[in-house]
Amino acid sequence: MAHEPLTQEEVLLEGFLALDTPEGFRAELIEGEIVVTPPPDGDHEDYIGLIVNQVIRRSRTDMQFSGNKGLKLQSGGGCPKNHVIPDGTFAPMKLRLYRGAESWMPCDGVAMVLEVTSSKPKADREAKRRCYARAAIPLYLLVDRDASSITLFSDPENENYRQHCTLPLGKPLALPEPFAFELDTADFL
Questions:
Q1: Eight-class DSSP state of 124
Q2: pLDDT digit string (tens) for 149-164?
Q3: Considering only Cβ atoms within 10 Å of each terminal Cβ, which end of the chain, N or C, has fewer?
């Protein structure tokens, strides 16, 4: 029996899903490109820890956090679905989004994703921002270590966020509902 030939997008997705990355490395499929990143350095993890600690303690809504959750997001053009692993994914605790979720889950219910720039900051600043906006994730928090700044992107529409607030590290950043508190970045310096 003859089978339809696979499209280039299907071959790319199958190859990506079959990858066996070395321990600690992270593989993502972003806008049709396979991106493999090495384990993060200590400063990268410190920023994440500072943010998670404040969200858990101060958020108006109880939040669940994952630093390893694969999200399956819409793609643009003829690319296969994006498969992204944010540095952090926050969702309201009452939704229990991670319970029973497969390795790559849809992003419905995710309140905010977090990225801290590392060896490939352009991906965090541009490609991932477009992916998260396209997927209608309400908030994208970016700690840009090279620029010593923190940016909150909000109000997603199509392939971008209509609003963003960028402040230098050290200044407090207001996180809107469902978080509803000021993120203190004084310890980020």
A1: I
A2: 999 999 999 889 999 9
A3: N
Q: Which two tokens stand for residue 64?
A: 């669940």
Tell me: the pLDDT tens digits for 31-88?
A: 999 999 999 999 999 999 999 999 999 999 999 999 989 999 988 766 688 999 999 9
DSSP-derived 3-state class of residue 143? strand
Sign of the torsion formed by the C-alpha atoms of 79, 83, 89 and 90: positive
pTM: 0.94
Q: Characterize the bridge pairing of strands 104-106 and 70-73.
A: parallel
Task: Check if the beta carbon of residue 173 is closer than 8 Å to that of residue 142.
Answer: no
Cβ contact 38:119 at 8 Å: yes
**Closest listed residue to residue 169, CA positions, set 58, 47, 40:** 47
Rounded CA-CA distance 188/171 in Å is: 10
* Number of C-beta neighbours around residue 159 at 10 A: 13
Contacts of 81 (CB under 8 A, 6+ apart): 13, 29, 72, 73, 74, 75
> CA 139 to CA 26: how far, in whole Å?
22
CA 168, 84, 127: angle at the middle one, nearest 5?
55
